[in-house]
Amino acid sequence: MIIKALIASGAFAVAAAFAPAAPPVGAADIDSVVEEYLRSTGLPGAAVAVTQGDEVVRAAGYGRTPAGEPVTEHTTMAVASVSKSFTALAVMQLAEAGRVDLDEPVRSYLPEFTTSDPRAARITVRQLLDQTSGLSDATYPPFNRPQPDSLRSAVAEMSSAKLAAEPGTRWEYHNPNFQVAARLVEVVAGQPFDDYLQEHVFAPLGMTDSRTIDTASELPPSAHGHLMVLGSAVAVPEPPAFGGGSGGMLSSAHDMSAWLIAQNNGGRGPGGAAIATATTIAATHAPSSEISGDYALGWSVGTTGSGAPIIAHSGDLFTATAYQALLPASGYGIAVMANTGLAYGDAKAIADQLIALLEGTPAPVPNAPFVVADAVLLVLTAGAALLAIRGVLRSRRWATKRSSAVRAAFRLLPLSIPLLVFVFIDRVVSTLYRGRDVAWIQVPYLYPTFMLLLATAAIGSVAVLSARLLRLAQAARAGRSA
Predict the structure, then answer these.
(1) How far apart, in Å, do the first and last CA atoms of the chain sit?
(2) Domain residues of the chain, as ranges?
(3) I need a surface site. Which of 44, 179, 217, 462 has the fewest CB within 10 A?
(4) By C-alpha distance, which of 78, 245, 102 is closest to 168?
């Protein structure tokens, strides 16, 4: 692992030597990019941190929260799956202290971690952090089941889980991996996960706005987000979900700037306090094996549009997104939190704009609001409602024309299709998301106007079906009476 980190460091050094020189970037340049993005897309609010080396270039908030408060550098917002890099660091701190061996089975430190699959006994701590444990959304859905309320209960409920692959043989992104890792930290350190992070990460770095929660119901008002309809933001609550260790951290632009500095400065924050050695930090940034691909320990590695190395991780809730990136060639760090959901990808889109600014390359085109698509779907919704009303009003005429029960049944059968699609839409979306688990309640957050159309079509079809069956029954009784 250390060898991989050193190789990666060497590659970054080579990239730095040949990286194109970009003009100096100041706070005003960053403000201009972010403010223009909000103006052109309708994004309600965002928090942004940009650092270089051990200096903060800009840490600021833009726009507003769902409650109408201005977003500032100290506004607490959700970082979603960016939380995984913090959980990975907590485990690595314990490994650095000799209290955890990454290549030992998880059960050596967490005996309560049991599943219905005997292969789980071979899952190592490292395999949790690089997502090669063999656990999968397909065999243990994180959302389509009763949601736990603590890390202890999250691990206990995994007693029914099965593995989709032998540990260490396949990579698959699976949130419960990091929930188990966070619970391991609690047990080994002997304190709640949030207390551990406060003592060993947040306090040393001066991250006074940061904390970690377990469930969506614990999100503060400032961390709530929006859906976009016809280009306008609609404030909505986050759907119920558990995210302790995997996506439950809250932070601010101010705090994330300190975190970025520590990542680019060998584990030392802006005040000089160390949260880990440079070797440990480098190890979290480097993939452990070929099986994990470009996924390291709570981070992913890749290249920017200009070909420079990048170490990053995104975070997606259904009403908010986040993104963090390190650019080793130039020493920059970027963190973005946006209060719209994963359907829009605004946090990464802003980060991509800022990376282009920092590298002096053409900026990508901002996300276009789905105004036309929403308008078309809303028109279709109105059309579906009118067709349903027409079908109900004309049901008597329809019934009098049906001379055969078989033919009538054949004509009625298509009316059940919208209802079936509406009921099982989560499975359709899960297939579109390559097998990732999606709960039914989450689908309207991804496609709000489409779900309105589908709901209207389903209700209308049921209404027409019921009216026609009623008229058929009445016609049959009248025929028997005659």
Answers:
(1) 87
(2) 2-359, 371-481
(3) 217
(4) 102
The torsion angles phi and psi of 105, rounded to 5 degrees, stand at -60, 145
Show the tokens assigned to 146: 């009763």
pLDDT (tens digit, 0 to 9) for every residue of the chain, 482 residues total? 443 443 444 444 434 444 445 568 899 999 999 999 999 999 999 999 999 999 999 999 999 999 999 999 999 999 999 999 999 999 999 999 999 999 999 999 999 999 999 999 999 999 999 999 999 999 999 999 999 999 999 999 999 999 999 999 999 999 999 999 999 999 999 999 999 999 999 999 999 999 999 999 999 999 999 999 999 999 999 999 999 999 999 999 999 999 999 999 999 999 999 999 999 999 999 998 999 999 999 999 999 999 999 999 999 999 999 999 999 999 999 999 999 999 999 999 999 999 999 999 998 888 777 899 999 999 999 999 999 999 999 998 888 876 677 788 888 899 999 999 999 999 999 998 888 899 999 999 999 999 999 999 999 999 999 999 998 888 777 766 65
Cα distance between residue 293 and residue 260, in whole Å: 23
- Non-local (6+) Cβ contacts of 297 within 8 A are 88, 92, 126, 129, 130, 283, 284, 285, 288
Q: Which of 294, 291, 359, 301 is nearest to 325 (CA)?
A: 301
DSSP string, 95-125: HHTTS--TTSBGGGT-TT---SSGGGGG-BH
Say if residues 297 and 219 touch (Cβ distance below 8 Å).
no
Neighbours of 41 (CB within 10 A): 20
- Classified as helix, coil or strand, 324 is strand
Q: How would you classify the pairing of strands 45-52 and 300-303?
A: unpaired
Instruction: Give the span between the Cα atoms of 234 and 43, in whole angstroms.
Output: 11
Rounded Cα–Cα distance for residues 68 and 78 (Å): 17
State both tokens at 286. 């480097």
| Segment holding 303, helix H or strand E | strand 300-303
Q: Could you tell me the CA-to-CA distances from 436 to 49, 137, 295, 343, 424 in Å, in that order?
A: 30, 6, 17, 15, 15
CA–CA gap between residue 231 and residue 42 (Å, rounded): 6
Sheet with 211-212, strands from edge to edge, namely 77-80, 249-251, 211-212
The SS3 assignment for 271 reads: coil
CB neighbour burial string for 203-237, b if at least 16 within 10 angstroms, e if fewer: ebbbbebbbbbbbbeebeebbbbbbbbbeebebbe
2-359 adopts what CATH topology?
Beta-lactamase (3.40.710)
Indicate the DSSP class of residue 440.
Answer: G
154, 244 Cβ separation under 8 angstroms: yes
